[in-house]
UniProtKB/TrEMBL annotation:
Residues 27-71 form the Tetracyclin repressor-like C-terminal domain. It comes from the Bacteria. The keyword Transcription regulation applies. The keyword Cell membrane does not apply. Gene3D superfamilies: Tetracycline Repressor, domain 2. The lineage of its organism: Bacteria, Bacillati, Actinomycetota, Actinomycetes, Streptosporangiales. This is Tetracyclin repressor-like C-terminal domain-containing protein. Keywords: Transcription, Transcription regulation. Residues 1-40 are annotated as: Disordered. Pfam families: TetR_C_11 (PF16859).
Length: 76
């Protein structure tokens, strides 16, 4: 009924969407990544912000926005 989702070419075909949202969890558990918001929340915040900018406000996706996102998502 719905088309197959498309991901970045580095993500193997057939990867379930929930895997993309939870990808960093094993690395975080090993201590390879700092503690932070759950991966699903990071995806929601990032894609939500970008979608809002593109569809609602039509403001540019600029360095300031990316810096703001990085600061919010990496705040301890």
């Amino acid at each position: 009924m719905f088309p197959e989702p498309r991901f970045h070419p580095a993500i193997p075909a057939g990867t379930p969407p929930h895997s993309v949202r939870s990808g960093p969890t094993p690395a975080r558990g090993r201590g390879d990544l700092p503690a932070g918001p759950p991966p699903g929340a990071v995806a929601d915040i990032g894609f939500g912000t970008l979608g809002y900018r593109l569809l609602a406000t039509r403001e540019p996706l600029d360095e300031a926005l990316i810096g703001d996102l990085v600061r919010v998502l990496t705040a301890a």
